[in-house]
């Protein structure tokens, strides 16, 4: 292809913005596609997703279809845009086969894991929850499966032990921006490599219960879960049925009954896990602001020997 490819960009959240910016600096973006505006906040004000807002600021052609399957009008919009290739980054909708066939070079997806590991909606979060020390970005050719298409490019990214999903998302967003530019620059020379489906693992969308502390888990697993759910739904524990948000979890020394408060000092609250213990820096009771864990313990009467409620996921 003598000229640079024209790109249609599909994305919605703030995570996708660095990818959009990197593409538009090097290539012509002929269409931006984002999720529809949604009610936000107490006033339920209709608000565009960050990618849609940025496209409007830049004066880029924007579409926000409510559905894709069977949407002939949107299919025509994509075809009429003249896009040679489409790029998806955290767009949030399944793409039907009829749409995938419209651009000459199909759709490239930026997936934030080293596929075939962590296919699905929450690869960043589950990599942390599972205690991975390395993750990365995959540029793949999108097919009709869930992250099952052939791999075009991959790059690893070591995970800093102090990172939560917030910091890891930022690092992967920057990595994805660089890698997609590399893919688009060499679009005609990329060699698709089929995934080994037998090695696939899955990263489903998080639910609120994924943030509930499993005190019977080893301390490292409790902390890894905290890191993975830091953006949402955050870490939740219960004391005598009262819901509490916990912050600043790190592994600590000690051993006791799971959920047992072992000590309180200026550095926080030490609570026993299934193996080892966890230090908690902040506690946020419902409808109140977060406060230092030692202050909360004093007002709540959480003295050594107090036990948090044990919660285990249902097996049914």
UniProtKB/TrEMBL annotation:
(6S)-5,6,7,8-tetrahydrofolate binds at residues 113-116. Coiled coil: none annotated. SUPFAM superfamilies: FMT C-terminal domain-like, Formyltransferase. One of its GO terms (molecular function) is methionyl-tRNA formyltransferase activity. Residues 207-299 form the Formyl transferase C-terminal domain. It is an enzyme of class 2 (transferase). It comes from the Bacteria. It catalyses: L-methionyl-tRNA(fMet) + (6R)-10-formyltetrahydrofolate = N-formyl-L-methionyl-tRNA(fMet) + (6S)-5,6,7,8-tetrahydrofolate + H(+). InterPro entries: Fmt (IPR005794), Formyl_trans_C (IPR005793), Formyl_transf_N (IPR002376), Formyl_transf_N_sf (IPR036477), Formyl_transferase-like_C_sf (IPR011034), GART_AS (IPR001555), Met-tRNA-FMT_C (IPR044135), Met-tRNA-FMT_N (IPR041711). Its EC number is 2.1.2.9. It holds the Pfam family Formyl_trans_C. Residues 6-184 form the Formyl transferase N-terminal domain. Keywords: Protein biosynthesis, Transferase. Attaches a formyl group to the free amino group of methionyl-tRNA(fMet). The formyl group appears to play a dual role in the initiator identity of N-formylmethionyl-tRNA by promoting its recognition by IF2 and preventing the misappropriation of this tRNA by the elongation apparatus. PANTHER family: METHIONYL-TRNA FORMYLTRANSFERASE, METHIONYL-TRNA FORMYLTRANSFERASE, MITOCHONDRIAL. Belongs to the Fmt family. This is Methionyl-tRNA formyltransferase. The lineage of its organism: Bacteria, Thermotogati, Deinococcota, Deinococci, Deinococcales. The gene is fmt.
């Amino acid at each position: 292809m003598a000229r640079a490819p024209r790109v249609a960009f599909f994305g919605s959240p703030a995570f996708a913005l660095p990818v959009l910016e990197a593409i538009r600096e090097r290539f012509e973006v002929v269409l931006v596609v984002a999720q529809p505006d949604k009610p936000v906040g107490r006033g339920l004000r209709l608000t565009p997703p960050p990618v849609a807002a940025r496209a409007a600021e830049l004066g880029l052609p924007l579409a926000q279809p409510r559905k894709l399957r069977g949407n002939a009008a949107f299919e025509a919009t994509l075809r009429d845009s003249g896009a040679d290739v489409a790029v998806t980054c955290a767009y949030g909708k399944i793409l039907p086969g009829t749409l995938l066939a419209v651009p000459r070079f199909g759709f490239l997806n930026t997936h934030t894991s080293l596929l075939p590991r962590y296919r699905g909606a929450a690869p960043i979060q589950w990599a942390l929850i599972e205690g991975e020390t390395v993750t990365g970005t995959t540029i793949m050719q999108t097919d009709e499966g869930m992250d099952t298409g052939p791999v075009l490019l991959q790059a690893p990214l070591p995970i800093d032990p102090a990172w939560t999903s917030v910091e890891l998302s930022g690092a992967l967003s920057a990595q994805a921006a660089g890698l997609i530019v590399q893919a688009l620059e060499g679009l005609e020379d990329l060699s698709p490599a089929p995934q080994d489906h037998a090695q696939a693992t899955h990263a489903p969308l998080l639910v609120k219960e994924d943030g509930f502390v499993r005190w019977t888990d080893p301390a490292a697993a409790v902390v890894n879960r905290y890191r993975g759910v830091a953006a949402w739904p955050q870490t939740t524990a219960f004391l005598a049925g009262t819901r509490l948000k916990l912050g600043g979890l790190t592994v600590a020394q000690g051993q006791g009954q799971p959920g047992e408060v072992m000590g309180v000092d200026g550095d926080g609250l030490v609570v026993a896990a299934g193996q080892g213990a966890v230090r908690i820096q902040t506690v946020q009771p419902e409808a109140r602001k977060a406060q230092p864990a030692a202050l909360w313990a004093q007002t709540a009467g959480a003295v050594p020997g107090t036990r948090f409620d044990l919660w285990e996921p249902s097996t049914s």
